[in-house]
Every structure is written in structure tokens, then in C-alpha cells.
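Reminder to self: keep the SMILES exactly as supplied, no canonicalising. Ligand is fe (ii) ion.
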Amino acid sequence: MTFRIAQISDTHLSPAHPAFTANFDALTTHLRATRPDLVVNTGDVSAHGELGGEEAERDLRFARDRHAALGLDWLALPGNHDVGNDPAVTERNGADRDRVARWNSVFGADRFLRDVPGWRLIGLDSLITATDMAEEQFGFLADALAGAGPRRVALFLHKPLCEEAMSEAALTYWAVLPEARHRMLSLLERTPPAFVASGHVHQWRDRGVSQGLCQIWAPSVAFHVGDTWQHRVGEKCQGYVEHTLHPDGRHDYRLVEPEGLIRNDIGLMPEVYGPQTPVTD
Ligand SMILES: [Fe+2]
Ligand SMILES: [Fe+2]
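C-alpha cells returned for the bound complex:
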């Protein structure tokens, strides 16, 4: 029997942003009808969870309650809008113990391990890889891979491992930091995952194979970033990725664009995150 995962991402939920809630409501209707075996949200579950204070608590709880109301089995990983961005690429609201503790108090762990027929699903927090919380997670990954046995591994995280090539050296907003990436790759060498599923870029892309690893980028449920403000490296749409895992290790996947999801452009919604900066090159 196959196991179907709906990988949703970047839902950016908040009671302050009804356009994003409307997209989640349309997605909810679709998922209740199609009933995947598991829903995995690959992060930026909330709109302002990284800010701290009442606003963060409000958004995280709102997002958690919306997921619980799906009536389906679900897991969520934190994104930069939930626990703060990697401190190496942000000057304020960086991921720290307080923010991760707030996530823990609402969602539970910031990582997961789930065995399903023929497969081991591993979820990681990609925002803490350069903090003093990283060691424990690398240990978690090493143990999860060592215990996979004959199962195929699928890896889920918010940020893609790289933009184009695992060898790229730049510290960027868009991908796992190079040092953490290489440490993950060395752990993955003996047990390569069948695929690495991520969000964060708000673009759908499945051609990101580097060093033999297939990277699948889920689009955002909530919004895309118009071409004026973000380069197009994949497809800018609103939807999710359905993964079908066969017990013998085969994997199929497809983009799903449910009816009723509105194509929101965050560049035209400055009330959410302020004016976006136009791309220059
Ligand atoms: Fe996002
Ligand atoms: Fe993100």
C-alpha cells in the first residue's frame, strides 16, 4: 500500500492576514476531500512567529489550531518566520533558544522522525544550524540515518540545501549555510535520501539535482513574490506537493494547485511585511 504525503509550505498564517487564511481554508477543503495519509508543513507556518511577544504567540497558536482543524495526521517544521532566521544571515530576530522554546510550547519538537511502510521520514530545523542548538540536531540526524535500516529516507526542511549546487560557498538568505550543508552531506553520504523536500523560496521547482540529491521545492500556500522583487528560478504558483511513497522505495510526486487558492503577490501587499526591495541584477 502506498503512503501519500501532502507537503504544504509557507502558509504564513495569522489572524491579521485574512488573504492567507482564505488560501488555507481552500486548501483545507481540498485536503479533507482527498485525505492524504500525512500532511507535512515545511515551515513559515505562521506570519510573525519570529517577532516575539503577543503577536508571535497569537500567530503560532492560530496556525497550530488551523492545522489541528484539518482532521488529518500532520507534522510541522519551523521556518524563519516561526523561530527567526539563521543568525548568520540576519541582524535582528535571529533564531535563538527563546524562539525555539516558544515553537516547542505550541507545536512540540522542531524536528521529527516518522517511519511509514518502507520509508523513514526525517524533518530538521534548518534555522538553528549555526547556533549552539545545532550539535544536538546533528546527533539526531546521525542517529536517525543510522537506524534507517533497509528503509529509504526522505528529508524535509524549510530551506533548500542549496540554490543551484552543493558546492556554492555564499551565505545567502535562500539556502542552508555552506558549513552546515557540508556537515549534513557528509552524514547523508552513507544513507542518501531519495529526495530532499523544502519550502522557503515560494517557488515550485524539482530540477535541483546536485551531487545526486533530488531537491523538491514546494510553492507557498499563501503567496509568491512577483518578478519585480524576486528572480524567477522555478514556477511562481500557489499550491502544494503530493508525494506518493511506495513500500518498495519508489517515489512519485506532483504539484497540486487546489481550486480556490488565490495567487497573492506579496510585492503588492506591503501591509504584511512592508515594501519589498526590487531586484537590481
Ligand atoms: Fe515563507
Ligand atoms: Fe522562509
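Points to follow up:
Residues 18-34 form the longest helix (17 residues).
The first strand starts at residue 3 and ends at 8.
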